[in-house]
Design a protein that fits this description.
heterodimer, A: mainly alpha, MetI-like fold, about 70% helix, flat, B: alpha/beta, D-Maltodextrin-Binding Protein, domain 2, 2 domains, 6-stranded mixed beta sheet, 5-stranded mixed beta sheet, globular
């Protein structure tokens, strides 16, 4: 007997067949190791399988009494709280300006996008020279207007804000492109109707642009938050010989995990901190999706 | 026909069984990689049944590679590592002791300089070095001459006066500094092993289990160090940005003096476009106590080396730590030999560049780290709290001692 499927079923089967490969990849390369980290976090790890021993929740209780972890956690939250809103606001502002520019728009777009595709390591090196208290151009300029040289990356109180600014500078182009695409997708007719009704530019922005951009804003907020929560490369390279310094002021959770696992070989504890980071990202993302994504009626 | 193929297969199998292949890992450093490549050729010619495969990785990714490979049961049989990493690696199961019957501890102690004992954990050696390093003062002779200074400083007092003469400012910004201060470079070692000992203290107890640098002598030494910036103003941290900024600044001719290891000789020789010299580290007053920080990279056996592989790895280890290799190593890589006999050569201690390092070897000590990465951060933070946040030196050092003690307790528990 020959099996007969309707056209719709056959299409669905094909779709699943194609999806199977990425799904398998996702399961074995992403999900399985994630659960393995959970498993690993319950062990004192050792290269010799005979010496691995189960420690239960010991690593989790160690977290409670680890001031470095506390600092990394506090910094990570600060990066996110500072970074995400500024990145969104600046991204939107630049996108709106670019949209109103008619000449050379592609050139400007390319200029804004360049930092995003520049390797983070190169960015870090150039910035650490530009911000140097003794040789940097930034302090040179500050000097012209009578502001004393600032330490920026070398000051425990300024370093975190400075790193955040550099990361935003680097991500801005991507953010702008997202918002530009969002802006393009808003039907012109709404704007025309609003203009006929005599709506102020602020009202147009508040009641048309912003609500209709919501899907892009939600996406950007979620992706931006995850990016800042996982911040690593810039922090490592901006202070290469004292990573996370000065005095731990730029240390992030991701960097702390890396140091625990690959400089101190405490794989079990590092896995436990990874589980913590995973839980934080999961909770924040779910909350964000809940709060930010309202359906917008056209 | 079938029989014939069978015979060929058996013969091939026998040939393969007789040849043992071992893997050696080190980080990328051109002169070292080239020399090991040459040495492998020699070694394989002498031992036709052993094949050595060298694999190298960038320095920054090196520990990560070792951790991920060995944790998965793959990687090197013989592995190059910094001595300060040994306890952490041993605890994670990445090293096995050198078998006493193959290379007795007594032989190691008789033939290698005392510093090598830092490779011992729980009474067993976990590796043997080819070369060792100490610290010394590099100084820019041209800048010294321009500032009217005739000789390198012998005491700290001279060091301060010279440093001040060499420090130039324009407005609030430094254009040249006397000393390339670098808490995260070699200076945390300078404090622990040089200044604390010169002041009559000890950084750690003899059993390596207690922090002692928060003694009155230690606090005095810590104040002395932070005063280089706070009181005497002979330098500023991160004057040149980047990895090894203090060394780059010296090579660029903007820094009068730096304290650096013998491993820096190569890059300074090839980079510096001025006359420079090397001197022993200054002391409190003439005739006062000397101290130095010694360190080394060594070759250790991984748990993967078992049976014939272990024998082959030990044979190769003996070959690359032999007197002949060490002579070549000094010549090609520029690192000091670890064997006592070679250091007695008077030509070496009279050498204007190597001399101060060689002389320091007789009193240099290697800090008994248990978790080098973490202990280093503790000390760098202690210094930076004073230099960058104006913390009280004594309070900052006490905090470091408490944090460091916690790391020690965690390790020894």
């Amino acid at each position: 007997m020959k099996l007969r499927f309707s056209l719709a079923t056959r299409e669905a089967l094909w779709a699943f067949a194609f999806l199977a490969i990425p799904l398998a990849f996702f399961l074995f390369i992403r999900i399985y190791p994630a659960f393995q980290a959970l498993w690993l976090s319950l062990f004192e790890w050792n290269a010799d399988p005979a010496k691995r021993h189960y420690v239960g929740l010991e690593h989790y209780s160690r977290m409670l009494a680890d001031p470095t972890l506390g600092k990394a956690l506090r910094n990570t939250v600060l990066y996110t709280v500072l970074g995400v809103p500024f990145q969104l606001i600046l991204g939107l502002a630049v996108a709106l300006l670019l949209q109103s520019v008619t000449r050379l728009r592609d050139l400007f777009r390319a200029i804004y996008f360049t930092p995003y595709i520049t390797p983070a390591v190169a960015v870090a090196w150039v910035f650490s020279w530009m911000l140097s208290p003794n040789f940097g151009i930034v302090n040179e300029i500050l000097g012209w207007v009578g502001i004393p040289a600032q330490k920026f990356l070398l000051s425990p109180s300024q370093a975190l804000v400075t790193v955040t600014a550099i990361v935003i500078w680097q991500n801005l182009g991507f953010q702008v492109v997202l918002f530009l695409a969002g802006l393009e997708s808003i039907p012109r007719t709404y704007y025309e109707a609003a203009r006929i009704d005599g709506a102020s530019p602020w009202a147009v922005f508040r009641y048309i642009t912003l609500p209709l951009l919501n899907p892009v804003t939600v996406f950007s907020a979620v992706i931006g938050t995850i990016g800042f929560l996982q911040l690593f490369t810039q922090v490592v390279n901006l202070n290469f010989t004292d990573q996370g310094g000065p005095v731990g002021s730029t240390l992030t959770l991701a960097l702390y995990i890396y140091q625990l696992a690959f400089a101190r070989f405490q794989l079990g504890y590092a896995a436990a901190v990874t589980v913590l980071l995973f839980a934080i990202i999961l909770v924040i993302t779910l909350v964000q999706l809940r709060i930010l994504s309202r359906r917008v009626e056209y | 026909m079938k029989k014939f193929i069978g015979l060929v297969l058996v013969a091939l199998g026998l040939a393969l069984a007789q040849q043992t292949s071992i893997t050696y890992w080190q980080y990328d450093f051109k002169s070292k990689v080239d020399l090991i490549t040459d040495l492998i050729k020699q070694f394989e010619a002498q031992n036709p049944n052993i094949k050595v495969v060298q694999q190298t990785f960038p320095y920054d990714a090196y520990q990560q590679k070792v951790a991920s490979a060995l944790a998965a049961g793959q990687g090197p049989d013989l592995v190059n590592l910094y001595y300060g990493w040994i306890p952490t690696w041993v605890k994670a199961g990445y090293l096995q002791p050198i078998p006493e019957e193959a290379i007795p501890s007594k032989t190691i102690e008789a033939e290698f300089i005392p510093m090598t004992q830092a490779a011992k954990v729980g009474g067993k050696y976990y590796g043997i070095p080819t070369a060792v390093r100490t610290l010394a003062l590099f100084y820019n002779k041209d800048l010294f001459k321009a500032a009217g200074i005739a000789t390198p400083p012998r005491t700290w007092e001279e060091f301060y006066t010279d440093g001040q003469k060499l420090t130039l400012k324009q407005g609030g910004r430094y254009t040249q500094i006397g000393y390339g201060i670098s808490p995260d470079g070699q200076d945390h070692n300078v404090f622990r092993e040089i200044l604390v000992r010169q002041a009559g203290g000890r950084p750690y107890s003899d059993d390596d289990k207690k922090v002692l640098y928060n003694s009155p002598e230690g606090i005095k030494a810590f104040r002395q160090y932070t005063d280089w910036v706070k009181k005497y103003d002979i330098g500023v941290p991160n004057f040149f940005p980047g990895n090894n900024g203090y060394r780059d600044g010296f090579i660029a001719g903007k820094i009068g003096m730096i304290i650096d290891g013998s491993f820096a000789i190569g890059s300074i020789k090839s980079g510096a476009k001025f006359n420079w010299g090397v001197a022993e580290i200054p002391i409190d007053r003439l005739g006062a106590r000397k101290a130095n920080f010694g360190s080394f990279w060594l070759h250790g056996l991984s748990p993967l080396a078992t049976g014939a592989k272990r024998d082959a790895a030990i044979k190769f280890l003996q070959f690359i730590t032999s007197a002949d290799t060490e002579k070549l190593w000094l010549e090609k890589v520029g690192e000091l030999p670890a064997r006592r006999a070679l250091l007695r050569d008077p030509k070496l201690s009279l050498d204007p560049v190597y001399g101060p390092f060689i002389i320091s070897l007789s009193y240099a000590k290697a800090t008994p780290f248990v978790d080098e990465a973490a202990q280093r951060t503790v000390m760098v933070n202690a210094i930076n709290r004073v230099l960058l946040e104006n913390a009280d030196p004594a309070a900052s050092l006490q905090q470091a001692a408490a944090e460091d003690q916690k790391i020690l307790d965690q390790f020894w528990k």
